[in-house]
Design brief:
198 residues; alpha/beta; Metallo-beta-lactamase, Chain A; six-stranded mixed sheet
Length: 198
């Protein structure tokens, strides 16, 4: 499995290109801006981009989603709750390209011989999801190195985000790599032992 991280947009949100090296099938996670840069990076990897997936609906994670999905003719995926929200921090309640995949807990998306699993992790938003593949977690704005996502925006709830992290993410293997929506990577063990919110 090959993973490339691209900080994009005005908030330098982490966009990830996740590719099965044998088949070249790939997903682009959280394309928040700079569509040309994302497309150039995926093309350099010779990625066959099958999916454009979003951990949640905030525009710093969705801003280039439609353009990238249209470019590759790939399926766009987000949870139903975050696809329909209306607050100004979201992408006006809809995407310019209709989302074909309504992401749900336990949904499995195939990338060649690999399986990317969706885990519902609400709390930063009501429809937030985390993606788990090959010992890696793409957590969006749910879990960061040494911190957690904000809960003071529309759809956020502190009790819910803490429950999501403890009950669904901290139960995974210690060496599971956490790849957040902003900032550096970490591990489940490091966050379990030292994250002040947990």
């Amino acid at each position: 499995m090959k993973v490339k991280r691209l900080p994009v947009g005005v908030y330098a949100a982490n966009c990830y290109i996740v590719m099965d090296e044998d088949s070249k099938e790939a997903a682009i996670i959280d394309p928040g801006g700079d569509a040309d840069e994302i497309i150039e990076a995926a093309d350099e990897m010779k990625a066959d981009v099958k999916y454009v997936l979003m951990t949640h609906g905030h525009r710093d994670h969705t801003g280039a989603a439609s353009e990238v999905a249209e470019h590759y003719g790939s399926a766009l995926g987000i949870s139903a709750k975050d696809a329909k929200v209306a607050p100004a921090d979201f992408i006006e309640g809809k995407f310019y390209k209709e989302a074909e995949l309504s992401l749900k807990d336990g949904m499995v998306i195939k990338l060649g011989s690999r399986e990317l699993k969706c885990i519902e992790t609400p709390g930063h938003t009501s429809g937030g999801v985390t993606f788990h593949i090959d010992g890696m977690l793409f957590t969006g704005d749910t879990l960061f190195s040494g911190s957690i996502g904000r809960t003071d925006l529309g759809g956020g709830d502190l009790f819910t985000i803490i429950s999501s992290i403890k009950e669904k993410l901290m139960i995974l293997n210690d060496d599971t790599i956490v790849l957040p929506g902003h900032g550096p990577q970490t591990t489940v063990k490091r966050e379990r032992m030292s994250n002040p919110y947990l």
